[in-house]
Amino acid sequence: MGEAPEKDPYEILGVSPLATQEEIRRAYRALVRRYHPDSGTDEASATRFLEVHQAYELLTDPARRRAYDRLHRERRERKTTSFWWEVVLSRQVLPALPEEQTLYVLVEIYPTKRVPSRRVPLNLVLVIDRSTSMQGDRLDYVKSAAHHIIEELDSQDVLGIVAFDDRAETIVPSQPLTNRDYIHSRVSSIWASGGTEILRGLLAGLKQIRRFHNQDRISHLLLLTDGHTYGDEKACLAEARQAGKEGIGISAFGIGEDWHEMFLSALTRETGGACVYISDPPQARRALRETIRGLCDISVRDLWLIPRFPKQVRLESAFRCNPDVERLRLVGEEISLGALSVDTHLSILLELAVAPMPPGRYRLMQLELRGMLPDAGREDRLLVDLEIEIKEEVEEQPISTAIITAVNKVNLFRMQERAWQALEEGRREEARQQLEAVATRLLDLGETSLAHVALLEARRLAEGEEVSKQAKKEIFFGTRRLRLREREG
Amino acid sequence: MIQCPACGEKYRPGTLFCSKCGTYLPTGGSPRTVTLPTDRLSDVPYTPPDTGGLEQEAPAEPRTIRVRVVETDREVSLPPASELLLGRRDPMRGIFPDLDLTADGGIEKGVSRRHARILQKEGKVFIEDVGSANGTFLNDQRLMPYLPYPLRDGDRVRIGKLELEIHFE
User: Fold this and answer.
1) Are residues B78 and B160 in the same domain?
2) Among B33, B20, B63, which residue's Cα sits nearest to residue B169?
3) Structural domain that includes position A245
């Protein structure tokens, strides 16, 4: 926070830490009049004026104010847990209505430790699609990315490599990186042939990864493919679910346009891993590297969010909305959040349905967050009870900007999902309208280029053409990654 | 149930966005400014800070201000009023700026619905940023929000990324 004032901005403006934006603005305007260098009063002071202005800028920027509050509180409370959270409700007071109501809960989770005490050794397996369609550029770039990974990992890390087409071959059995020359030569020997059966590769990869999977390592399977797999999707998902339960992560890298984004993102979702679209083969190296770097930065793993509800409250949906949008899956009553990396924060949006209740104070839910520290083998836990009030008469309450931004982001993702669903079920006109609505919202948010992609596809549908596979991937992954600004005007 | 005013889809009360057309349900319009506290500023009385450095002149009637949007070369003569709002029109939220920049690519150029004001007081003209998201610039200098800056004939003002030329008549 380089430019932040040293002094407490709340103190400078003379407002309470709970002050509303309006109160802050009022205090600022009064002080500006007093201290402005041109004001001609005895109190005119350029230094004070600047101080007041900086404090005002910090406190009126929701993201910066939140960051300041968080840092401040952390210092005060001397955190003992390795992660911290903030829980915000869309409304604290609900009107007594004869029907169900929607309530949103935003959970923001931050790591509290800046740097892990030491990097946790990795246990990686690369599962490489070598089917005929990979021949040429695609396989060459993937092999080159693999060569780089071999060089970048430490000797404490473990690496295994599996190549698959309609059968799987263990190119390099999982082993510590002591004989790099051998591993390089094995990677060079991968040639393209055959079809794509992801299950084969997945099974062989998981077999290798389990040999070295234990508490002291972060185990992650990296799947690189460019095609559809046929008939084995269900079995793949079951394998991924099992891997997720064991604490093994799976990330997938889809190259080109012919792979199935819904399937691969469902597969990685089971383990909290990432699904990455590689439109151009040379991007493979950077994408792999970023994912592996993220694994090195893991400060908490096996993060679980456990909501417990009274019978009047029901969970409608759970989404991650930062760093990207992803539908979260419930395992029993628990939500798997995967791992938490240094310098990132996770935002989780829960949509609740609240049954009609007479006026009074009620317990809305209990929320628990659990996570494993990768190096200490210790489990940390946070717990909070949330309450709401039901009243006959309710004044209109301002809704937190963070909640509006989060719901907006998730909603845009759902809107494009609706479009693809309509298309899949043959309702082309509905799909076209839905894509146009997506484009309008994107334009409204200043996402001009993505909006144009959606508009173009809507036009193609109107003219009886098929949607381009590339555009579908751009919209699917683009709407997940939107960075919505919090201050908009 | 509540109904989306734009497409008629039904939702439970408390739902924030229509998942069919994306409409922000609590106000029936776009959410872009709903949380911006500047919207509530309209009823706060405005008193410009005492600019002691400038000599006082006899009160004068407000004059006509001519604005040229540089990129689209559109010229607008604004009525002689002591206060003029620059921004983007939004009937849903009751925002009707005196100079509406929607047609000049306002959204793409980062123009807020309530972006800036041109004020006239005692024969002097000022520009004030009213807490816009992307800022107001006078001759490439960013203005501090809510602080009126003196304007001169021929000055260039940037609203977000939209360049304007100001002339007095």
Assistant:
1) yes
2) B63
3) 122-296
Alpha-carbon torsion angle B148, B154, B155, B160, nearest 10: 100
Question: Of B90, B85, B83, B87, whose CA–CA distance to B34 is shortest?
Answer: B90
Q: So what's the ipTM on this one?
A: 0.74
pLDDT tens for each residue of chain A, 489 residues long: 334 445 788 888 888 777 888 888 888 988 888 887 776 666 667 778 888 888 998 888 888 888 888 777 666 554 567 888 889 999 989 999 999 999 999 999 988 865 556 788 999 999 999 999 899 889 999 999 999 999 989 889 999 999 999 999 999 999 999 999 999 999 999 999 888 899 999 999 999 999 999 888 899 999 999 988 888 899 999 999 999 888 899 999 999 988 888 899 989 988 888 899 998 888 899 999 989 988 888 888 888 999 999 999 999 999 999 888 988 878 788 898 888 888 788 999 999 999 999 999 999 999 999 988 776 677 888 888 899 999 988 877 778 878 888 998 999 999 999 999 999 999 999 999 999 999 888 887 778 888 889 989 999 998 888 888 889 999 988 888 876 544 333
Domain count, chain B: 2
Q: Under an 8 A CB cutoff, do A399 and B11 touch?
A: no
Q: Which of B15, B49, B132 sits opposite A489 (nearest CB)?
A: B132
Q: Quick check: helix, strand or coil at residue A274? A: coil
Name chain A contacts of B35, Cβ cutoff 8 Å: 398-399, 401, 404
The pTM is what?
0.66
- Give the 3-state secondary structure of residue A290: helix
A149 and A130 in one domain? Answer: yes
Q: Residue A438's closest CA among A472, A483, A470?
A: A472
In chain A, the number of structural domains is 4
Does residue A305 contact residue A376 with C-beta atoms inside 8 Å?
A: no
Nearest CA in chain B to A448: B108
Q: Do A414 and B19 touch (CB under 8 A)?
A: yes
- Both B27 and B76 in a single domain? no
CB contact residues (below 8 A), chain B span 18-77, against chain A: 18-22, 24, 26, 30-38, 40-41, 44, 49-53
**Segments forming the whole domain that contains residue B90:** 65-168
Q: Distance from A412 to chain B by nearest Cα, in Å? A: 7
B chain contacts of residue A407, beta-carbon cutoff 8 Å: 16-17
For residue B21, the chain A residues in CB contact (below 8 A) are 415, 437, 440
